[in-house]
Amino acid sequence: MTTVRYPNQFQPQERATAMGKGLAQYFTGRPCKNGHIANRKTSNGACIECSKIIQKKCIDNRLSNNPNWYKEDYAKNIESHKKRLKKYRLKHPERVKESYLNSSKKRMPQKAAAERARQAKKIQATPLWLTKEDWLQMDAVYICAKETSNLAGFNCNVDHIVPLKGKDVCGLHVPWNLRVVSTSYNSKKHNKLDRGIFFKPSITGGVLVHESALPWNWRK
Questions:
Q1: Surface-to-core class of residue 155, CB atoms within 10 Å of its CB (0-12 exposed, 13-18 middle, 19+ buried)
Q2: Global pTM?
Q3: Residue 212 in contact with residue 218, Cβ under 8 Å?
């Protein structure tokens, strides 16, 4: 027997009462024909748990007939999918957070492998001719990223302006190819070259900070 996720969300009541109050769901406290004690839809009186099972079966059938169905449907209705996902994230932040954490745990081996590959690439892209001052300046960039994260209220990373493993060109792990960016921007940039950036080696030891990590974008 399946129980409702939030058993105290609604007091036992009938569908007509829920319709009068303008509620999207109601809870009777009685099991449905399949034994679920769960919320029901005010629009048609259907059990929420039964609806989920039917929806899952429908999607599974479509995917079995066409493995690319979801991708094709998403491509045809991108805006509607984005709106629905945004609405869901705003309505259920805890569920989204829980799902993200579970997904991260499942992908820990893949992330570890990717990190090892990235570190190996960084070593290969680090010139032997770097001076002690160059290493100190690179340390300053990473320190700045950490301090900015603490002050800004969101995570910041050190980004290679010219990616170490870009599609068109590969950069080096040197001070003048590093900058502080927000984690959000860094994820979107991935290994692409930001062609709007023009830079030259710093001779003052300053740290380059992308606009995504500047103070006016910090959370209040």
A1: middle
A2: 0.48
A3: no
